[in-house]
Amino acid sequence: MIEDRELDSWREQWSSVAEPPAEFQRKVQQRIKRQERRFVLGNLLSVIAFLGMLLFAVLLRHQATWMGTGWWSTGVIVLVFVSAAYRIWFSRGTWRPQTQSTRAFVELWHKRVTARIRLLRISIYLSLGWIIFCAVLTAANWATIGQEVKAHPEEWTALLVVCVLMQYPVIWYGVVWLRRRKLAELNEVKKIMDEMDGKSLP
Amino acid sequence: MSEHRHALEKQFDRILGEYGAAISRLAFSYEAVASVREELVQEIALAIWQALAHFRGECSERTFVYRIAHNRGLSHVWRRRPPHQPLEELEESDQPVDPRPHPEEQAARTDQRVRLMSAIQSLPVTHRQMIVLMLEGLSHAEIAEVMGITENNVAVRLTRARKALKDALGVRS
After folding, report:
1. How many CB atoms lie within 10 A of CB A120?
2. ipTM strictly over 0.90?
3. Would residue A112 count as lying in a domain?
4. Can you give the pTM of this predicted structure?
C-alpha cells in the first residue's frame, strides 16, 4: 500500500511537469518542410557531385597525356566508384531497425557506428593508396613532368604545398579526429547495451 | 497534395495533440535546459513524422510514440554531454501554473517536483526509461514492447529502477 501511495504521489508530481512549448505544432510543421527541402537538395547535390567528378575525369582522359592524365583520370574514376561501392557495402543493414523498440534502436546505433568506423579506416587506406598512386604516376612520367617543373617552379611548388596541406592537416587529421569521436560513441553505445542487459546497473 | 500525405498529416496532428504533453514530460527526463528541451521535443515530433509513413499498426499508437520518443532521447543524451544538469537551473517558465491559492503548499509541491525530476535525471538511462514509462501509466506489456524486452524482465527492471529512484530521492525502503 505504501508503495502504491508513493507511486501515485510520483505520478501526480510527474503529470504536472510540463506542457508542450508554445506554438509547438506550427514549429514542427516548419521544421518538417525545412528538412524535406534539405533532403531533396542534399540528394541532388550528391548526384551532381558524383556525375561532375565522373564527367571531369572522362573529359580529362580525352585531353593531352603529357603527364599521364589518362591514368590519372582512370584513377579518379576508380576511386569514385570504389568509394561509392564500399560506402554502400558497409552501410548494409544499417538503414532501419528490425523493430522500433529501444533495444532494436540501440543495436542499430551500434551497427551504424561500427560501419562508420570501418569506413573511416578504409578511407585512411584509400588516401594512402591514392598518394602512392600519384607518386608512382609522377615518377613514371617524370620525363615530361620534370620539364614542366623546371619551366614553372613556383607554380609547381604552390601546387605541391596545396596538395600536402589538403592531404595531411585537412583530410588526415579530420579522419583521425572523426574516428576518435566515433570510437567514443561506440563505447557509449556499448555502455547503454550493457545497461539494457543489466550488466552495469546497480 | 496526395490523399495519402493528407491522411498522414491529419494523423500526425492528432498524435501531437494527444501526446504533446507526454512528449514534453519525457523530454524533461532527458534535458533540463528549457531551450534545448524545446529543441528535443521538436526533434521527437520530427522523428515521429518520419516513422509514421512506415507505421503499420504492429503495436498501439501509444507504444509507437513512446518508442520513438525514447530512442530520440537516447541519441540526445549521447550528443549532449555532460548529460546530467541539475534541475535547479529550471527557468521560471518551466514551472506549471498551480491553481491552488496557498503559496507555501505550492512551493512545497514545486520543491517535490524538482526533486523528483532531478532524481530521475540522475538515474542511468535504462532506469530512467523504465521509470518514465511507469509514471506515464504504461502497462508491463506496453513497456516490454517499447523497450524490446520480455514482461518478466520488465518486472525485475522496474523493481530495480524504483529502488534506484528511491535511493536518489533519499527515501528509505
Report:
1. 18
2. no
3. yes
4. 0.70
**Residue with C-alpha cell 509547438?**
A24
8 Å CB contact between A9 and A1: no
For residue A51, give the C-alpha cell. Answer: 556525375
Distance CA A100, CA B162 (A): 25
Q: Amino acid identity, residue B112?
A: Q
User: What range does the domain containing B8 cover?
Assistant: 1-85
| Residue ranges of chain A whose pLDDT lies below 70 | 1-4, 17-22, 60-70, 96-100, 199-202
Indicate the number of domains in chain B: 2
- B106 and B79 belong to one structural domain: no
CA B172 – CA B150 distance, rounded (Å): 29
Q: What is the CA B121 to chain-centroid distance, rounded? A: 11
Alpha-carbon distance of A137 to A133, in angstroms, equals 6
Does residue A61 lie in a domain region?
yes
Chain B neighbors of A200, CB-CB under 8 A: 124
Cβ atoms < 10 Å from Cβ of A173: 10
Same domain, B73 and B36: yes
Q: Is residue B96 part of a domain?
A: no
Gyration radius from chain A CA atoms: 26
Which residues make Cβ contacts (< 8 Å) with residue A112, sequence separation at least 6?
A94
Which residue, chain included where needed, has cell 512549448? Answer: A21
How many domains does one find in chain A? 1
Instruction: Give the model's confidence band at B138: pLDDT under 50 very low, under 70 low, under 90 confident, else very high.
Output: very high
Residue pair A54/A77 in contact by the 8 Å Cβ criterion: yes
Q: What range defines the domain where residue A124 resides?
A: 30-194
Cell numbers describing residue A164? 600536402
Chain A residue set in contact with B, beta carbons under 8 Å: 6-7, 10-11, 13-21, 24-25, 27-28, 31-32, 35, 96, 99-106, 109, 185, 188-189, 192, 195-196, 198, 200-202
Q: Whole-angstrom Cα distance, residue B129 to residue B41?
A: 16
Whether A62 contacts A72, CB under 8 Å: no
Q: What is the CATH number of the domain that holds B113?
A: 1.10.10.10
